[in-house]
Description:
Quinone Oxidoreductase, Chain A, domain 1, 16 strands, six-stranded parallel beta sheet
Amino acid sequence: MRAMRAEQFSGYEGLKLVDLAKPVVTEGKVLVRITAAGVTPLDHTILSGQFHGVRAPLVLGNEGAGVVEKGGGADYPSGSRVMFFGAYGVFEDGTYSEWVAVRKEDLCLIPDNVNDVIAAGIPVAYLTAQVALTRAGFRAGKNVFAPAIGGSVGNAVTQMARALGAKYAMSSTTSHAKAEQAKALGFNEVIDTSLEKLLDGIRRITGGYGTDIVIDGVGGEVLSESLGALAPEGSLTTLGYSASRKTTIDVTNVIVPQASIRGLNMFAQPKAAVSDAWNVIVSLLKSGAIKPIVAKTFSLTDAAEALGYLIKDRPFGRVILTI
């Protein structure tokens, strides 16, 4: 089978098209013919040699969509369309390939109203969003802020929070063009930080109250600024560092509102938490309350170009490989 594999973690030149043996299905695994794979910043981090605990050679891609070929039993009969996320592309070969042997508990049936390309970009972003919101104690009427409206997690959190009854589901962007694009797509609570400060924007939208929950997948100074916008007893969940792994915080932004900061590692989540999150996501997908956005698709052999587009162009929406 064809696969795009990182022969070494040296940047884009380390990603090569290889011919590998088709996976053998063992107990608890389901053979899935991959039709589309999500491209994520984590793929770039690994390819750049900046992620701990991984070893080359490695087929990248930790989310995807496809068709069950065998091993799915009654729950996932042959021909079922499925999407999934897991340690694939991180600690074992992933979805930048024609077939993957997927653990049965990682699978989710794709709703009929969602095509495979869109489905491939759902697992990482929307599972992360729902698990993070649940752990933060979200309930209807809360204010939620997630930076980077054009990014996968920022957009997913904003959509999930809005669909689940947030009073304000806020996001931000440093790009005026993206702010206008977000507005055209119906995201009316987006702060354009090219025109106003993040804190000022959150206070403007909430009438000075602030935000109960921050889900931050950006890191760097955005994390620091977001802390200053927390409402009393608010919380910030940090789960990414696309801007920077380091920041400086004003501890009074935690002390005064009696706020909290916590981390989220999706690879460490209990199976029950992920299963519960899938149930919520699928229900919202079926109703049309959430609508994942795809910016551009690339062929499998153009995986390096796809990663470059994601990192350098920072598009509004997901980047997907079609297999």
